[in-house]
Amino acid sequence: MAKQDNKIAIAKALSDGKFHSGEQLGKELGISRAAIAKHVKSLTLLGIDIFSVTGKGYRLAEPFNLIDQQRLMELCGNNLNIEVHGIIDSTNQRLMDLIRSKQDIDDGLTVISECQTEGRGRRGRSWISPFGSHIYLSRYFKSHEGLSEVAALSLVIGLAISNAIERYTGVVAELKWPNDVMVNNKKLAGVLVEAEGQSDGFCHLVIGIGINVNMPEESAELITQPWTDLQMVSKKTIDRNEFIAVLLAELDKVIDAFRVDKLTKLYKLWNNRNAFEGDVVNITTGDRVKSGRCIGIDETGALLIEEDNVISRIFGGEVSLRRA
Question: What positions does the DNA-binding region cover (predicted)?
C-alpha cells in the first residue's frame, strides 16, 4: 500500500471519533507502530486535529464524515461523472492537466478531494485546505464563446453556491463581486474559474469551488481575512456528501440557464444577493482606487458603481472590492 493510501486509511479509521491504538492500526495496515506515528504526524500537518494519549492511542479532536464516492453517486441518482481523491495538489490543476494532456474530457467531469496541498484562490492567493474539513471541488465546462465567459461564469457559480447553502441550511448567503460568497460579512466560499483555449472560440473552462464547512482551529490561524463556515452559521452538523449532492444539482440548474440566456435573467437573481448593495465601496486596480455607491451588476457581469450621478462599469480581472 502506498504511503498516501496509508494516510487515508488511518484518517478513515479515526473518522469515527474513537480511540485507536497505534498497535492495532499497524496490524490492520501491515506496518509498524513507528510508521503509524509518522503518518499521524503528517496528517496533523494536513490540518487534522489528532489527540495522542499514552495507553489509549489516537483520536480526532472532532469526528468527520469522509466523502464517499459511491454514496455521492447514489445521492445524485448515479448521473454523475466524478473523481474523489484523498490528497491532491489542486482539483483545478487535476482538470487543467487532463486538458493539457489532450484527453477527451466529458463536459461536467467533477473532481473532489479531501485535501489540497497546493490549493489556490483568486489573484494567486493560497487556499487553506485542511483534510476532511471543507469542500474542494472543480468541474469541467466546455465553452464555445471563448474566454469572455470566464467572468460571467464565476458570477453564476457564486449564485449556485448561495442557492445550495440556503436549500441545505436555510441560511441566506450573500455575494461579493466577483467571486466570493459571504455570510454576516465573512467569507464562506470562493470561486476560481480558469481557462485554456481561444479568446473567441472553443475554450476549456475549469470551475474551482472552495467552501468552508468546519474549520479546524490550527487552520483558522492561517487565514488573514474574516471567515466563517457552514457549521458555524447553520449551527448544525453538515454531511458533506449530502451538501455536495445539493450543490451539484444547483450548479446544473444555473449552468443550464447560463448556456441558454447567459446573464440575461441570472443577473437579477445575483443582484438580489448583492452583499454590498447601496454601500459606498472602493475598487482597487493596481495603484488606482475608484470609489462610488455599489448598484449591482448588469447583463454582462460588469459591476455598476455610481459616483456624482455618473454610473461606471467595472469589469473583472485583478480587481479588489472593499467597503469604503
Answer: 22-41
Active site residue 322: yes
Show the domains of the chain with their CATH numbers.
Answer: 3-60 (1.10.10.10), 69-271 (3.30.930.10), 276-323 (2.30.30.100)
259 has binding-site annotation: no
Q: Is 212 annotated as a binding residue?
A: no
Q: What are phi and psi of 248, to 5 degrees?
A: -65, -35
Query: Any binding-site annotation on 116?
Result: yes
- What's the CA gap between 174 and 121, in Å, rounded? 19
Closest by CA to 141, choosing from 119, 109, 170, is 109
Task: Say whether 41 is catalytic.
Answer: no
Q: Which residues contact 313 (CB under 8 A, 6 or more apart)?
A: 298, 300, 302, 303, 304
Cis peptide, bond prior to residue 178, ω within 30 of zero: yes
Reading phi first (left if > 0) and then psi (alpha if -120 to 50, else beta), residue 83 is in beta
Task: Clarify whether 187 is annotated catalytic.
Answer: yes
pLDDT (tens digit per residue) in 46-96: 888 898 999 899 998 887 889 999 999 999 987 789 999 999 999 999 999
Tens-place pLDDT, residues 199-215: 778 999 999 999 999 99
| Predicted structure pTM score | 0.91
Tell the burial category of 224 from Cβ atoms under 10 Å away from its Cβ (0-12, 13-18, 19+): exposed
